[in-house]
Amino acid sequence: MIKNILLSVSGSAETIVAAKYAICLSRLLQANLIAVFVIDTKVLSELLKTRIFVEAEARSYEQDLEQQGGMILERIKKMAESKQVPCETSLLRGAISDEVIRTAHELPADILVLGELREIASRAETFIDEGERIFRKSPCPVIISKNPAMVEALYKEIA
Protein backbone atom coordinates (compact mmCIF):
# COMPACT_ATOMS: atom_id res chain seq x y z
CA MET A 1 0.00 0.00 0.00
CA ILE A 2 1.38 3.38 -0.99
CA LYS A 3 0.61 5.90 1.75
CA ASN A 4 3.20 8.68 1.43
CA ILE A 5 4.50 10.37 -1.71
CA LEU A 6 7.42 12.73 -1.20
CA LEU A 7 8.01 15.46 -3.77
CA SER A 8 11.43 17.10 -3.86
CA VAL A 9 10.99 20.71 -4.98
CA SER A 10 13.56 23.09 -6.40
CA GLY A 11 13.42 26.36 -8.28
CA SER A 12 13.69 24.66 -11.67
CA ALA A 13 11.04 24.51 -14.38
CA GLU A 14 10.98 20.73 -13.97
CA THR A 15 9.59 21.18 -10.46
CA ILE A 16 6.13 22.12 -11.67
CA VAL A 17 6.00 19.11 -14.00
CA ALA A 18 7.07 16.86 -11.12
CA ALA A 19 4.49 18.50 -8.84
CA LYS A 20 1.69 17.89 -11.33
CA TYR A 21 2.73 14.26 -11.69
CA ALA A 22 2.94 13.81 -7.91
CA ILE A 23 -0.53 15.34 -7.55
CA CYS A 24 -1.89 12.89 -10.13
CA LEU A 25 -0.27 9.96 -8.33
CA SER A 26 -1.52 11.12 -4.95
CA ARG A 27 -5.05 11.47 -6.24
CA LEU A 28 -5.00 8.11 -8.03
CA LEU A 29 -3.45 6.22 -5.11
CA GLN A 30 -5.20 8.25 -2.39
CA ALA A 31 -1.79 8.80 -0.81
CA ASN A 32 -0.48 11.67 1.30
CA LEU A 33 1.54 14.23 -0.65
CA ILE A 34 4.45 15.92 1.09
CA ALA A 35 6.45 18.56 -0.80
CA VAL A 36 9.85 19.69 0.49
CA PHE A 37 12.11 22.55 -0.54
CA VAL A 38 15.62 22.62 0.91
CA ILE A 39 17.60 25.81 1.38
CA ASP A 40 21.11 24.62 0.59
CA THR A 41 23.03 25.94 3.58
CA LYS A 42 25.95 23.67 2.69
CA VAL A 43 26.57 25.59 -0.53
CA LEU A 44 26.05 28.91 1.26
CA SER A 45 28.68 27.90 3.79
CA GLU A 46 31.12 26.94 1.03
CA LEU A 47 30.52 30.26 -0.73
CA LEU A 48 31.42 32.04 2.49
CA LYS A 49 34.53 29.91 3.09
CA THR A 50 35.85 30.55 -0.40
CA ARG A 51 35.02 34.25 0.00
CA ILE A 52 32.76 34.33 -3.02
CA PHE A 53 30.15 35.79 -0.65
CA VAL A 54 30.61 38.00 2.37
CA GLU A 55 28.33 37.40 5.36
CA ALA A 56 25.75 40.02 4.32
CA GLU A 57 25.49 38.58 0.79
CA ALA A 58 25.06 35.05 2.16
CA ARG A 59 22.26 36.18 4.49
CA SER A 60 20.55 38.05 1.67
CA TYR A 61 20.84 35.06 -0.67
CA GLU A 62 19.49 32.73 2.03
CA GLN A 63 16.50 35.05 2.55
CA ASP A 64 15.89 35.07 -1.21
CA LEU A 65 15.98 31.26 -1.27
CA GLU A 66 13.60 31.09 1.69
CA GLN A 67 11.17 33.44 -0.04
CA GLN A 68 11.46 31.54 -3.33
CA GLY A 69 10.98 28.19 -1.59
CA GLY A 70 7.95 29.44 0.30
CA MET A 71 6.35 30.76 -2.88
CA ILE A 72 6.98 27.54 -4.79
CA LEU A 73 5.62 25.39 -1.95
CA GLU A 74 2.53 27.60 -1.67
CA ARG A 75 1.95 27.35 -5.43
CA ILE A 76 2.21 23.55 -5.31
CA LYS A 77 -0.13 23.39 -2.31
CA LYS A 78 -2.73 25.44 -4.20
CA MET A 79 -2.31 23.29 -7.32
CA ALA A 80 -2.89 20.15 -5.24
CA GLU A 81 -5.88 21.58 -3.41
CA SER A 82 -7.45 22.60 -6.73
CA LYS A 83 -7.44 18.88 -7.56
CA GLN A 84 -8.77 17.90 -4.11
CA VAL A 85 -5.37 16.53 -3.03
CA PRO A 86 -4.23 17.58 0.44
CA CYS A 87 -0.57 18.58 0.41
CA GLU A 88 1.79 19.13 3.31
CA THR A 89 4.78 21.35 2.69
CA SER A 90 8.08 21.74 4.45
CA LEU A 91 10.86 24.29 4.05
CA LEU A 92 14.11 22.71 5.25
CA ARG A 93 17.72 23.81 5.67
CA GLY A 94 20.87 21.78 5.05
CA ALA A 95 22.46 19.81 2.24
CA ILE A 96 19.68 19.15 -0.28
CA SER A 97 20.24 15.44 -0.83
CA ASP A 98 20.80 14.77 2.89
CA GLU A 99 17.57 16.53 3.89
CA VAL A 100 15.44 14.88 1.20
CA ILE A 101 16.80 11.42 2.09
CA ARG A 102 16.33 12.07 5.82
CA THR A 103 12.73 13.13 5.20
CA ALA A 104 12.11 10.05 3.03
CA HIS A 105 13.32 7.85 5.91
CA GLU A 106 11.34 9.69 8.58
CA LEU A 107 7.95 9.67 6.84
CA PRO A 108 8.56 6.92 5.61
CA ALA A 109 8.08 7.74 1.94
CA ASP A 110 6.75 4.99 -0.30
CA ILE A 111 7.57 6.92 -3.50
CA LEU A 112 9.86 9.87 -4.14
CA VAL A 113 9.06 12.11 -7.12
CA LEU A 114 11.78 14.22 -8.74
CA GLY A 115 11.84 16.54 -11.71
CA GLU A 116 13.79 15.42 -14.73
CA LEU A 117 17.48 15.08 -13.93
CA ARG A 118 19.82 17.29 -15.84
CA GLU A 119 22.24 15.69 -18.24
CA ILE A 120 25.55 14.83 -16.62
CA ALA A 121 28.53 16.05 -18.65
CA SER A 122 31.21 14.13 -16.76
CA ARG A 123 31.55 11.23 -14.37
CA ALA A 124 32.69 13.65 -11.67
CA GLU A 125 29.38 15.53 -11.92
CA THR A 126 27.57 12.34 -10.96
CA PHE A 127 28.91 12.76 -7.45
CA ILE A 128 28.06 16.44 -7.00
CA ASP A 129 24.64 16.75 -8.67
CA GLU A 130 21.98 16.88 -5.93
CA GLY A 131 19.26 15.24 -8.04
CA GLU A 132 21.61 12.40 -8.89
CA ARG A 133 22.53 11.95 -5.21
CA ILE A 134 18.89 11.85 -4.18
CA PHE A 135 18.12 9.34 -6.92
CA ARG A 136 20.97 7.05 -5.88
CA LYS A 137 20.51 7.29 -2.08
CA SER A 138 16.72 7.13 -1.92
CA PRO A 139 15.37 4.49 0.47
CA CYS A 140 12.26 4.10 -1.70
CA PRO A 141 11.37 3.86 -5.39
CA VAL A 142 12.02 7.08 -7.30
CA ILE A 143 9.90 8.41 -10.12
CA ILE A 144 11.55 10.89 -12.45
CA SER A 145 8.85 12.93 -14.13
CA LYS A 146 9.41 13.49 -17.84
CA ASN A 147 7.35 14.43 -20.85
CA PRO A 148 5.71 17.69 -19.71
CA ALA A 149 2.96 17.44 -22.35
CA MET A 150 1.85 14.02 -21.12
CA VAL A 151 1.97 15.14 -17.47
CA GLU A 152 -0.06 18.25 -18.32
CA ALA A 153 -2.70 16.11 -20.06
CA LEU A 154 -2.93 13.80 -17.03
CA TYR A 155 -3.16 16.77 -14.66
CA LYS A 156 -5.94 18.39 -16.71
CA GLU A 157 -7.96 15.14 -16.65
CA ILE A 158 -8.28 15.29 -12.88
CA ALA A 159 -11.55 16.97 -12.01
Describe the structure concisely for a colleague.
The chain is an alpha/beta fold and 159 residues long. It is 55% helix and 19% strand. It has seven helices and five strands; from the N terminus they run E-H-E-H-H-E-H-E-H-H-E-H.
Write the layout of secondary structure elements.
Layout: E1 4-9, H1 14-29, E2 32-40, H2 41-49, H3 55-82, E3 87-94, H4 96-106, E4 111-114, H5 123-128, H6 130-137, E5 142-144, H7 148-157
Parallel strand pairs: 1-2, 1-4, 2-3, 4-5
Helix pairs in contact: 1-7, 2-3, 4-6
Descriptive overview:
This protein is of the alpha/beta class and about 160 residues long. The chain has a single domain, classed as 3-Layer(aba) Sandwich (Rossmann fold), CATH 3.40.50.620. The protein contains seven helices and five strands, in the order E-H-E-H-H-E-H-E-H-H-E-H. The chain has a five-stranded parallel sheet with strand order 3-2-1-4-5, with helices on both faces. The two termini are about 25 Å apart. The model has no long low-confidence stretch (mean pLDDT about 90).
Shape: globular
Mean pLDDT, rounded to whole units? 90
Oligomer: single chain
Task: Tell me the CATH topology.
Answer: Rossmann fold
The strands making up the biggest β-sheet line up spatially as 3-2-1-4-5
**Which CATH C-level class is it?**
Alpha Beta
- N-C termini distance: 24 Å
Q: How much of the polypeptide forms β-strand, as a percent range?
A: 15-25%
Unreliable sequence segments: none
Helix- and strand-based class?
alpha/beta
Q: Into which percent range does the helicity of residues fall?
A: 55-70%
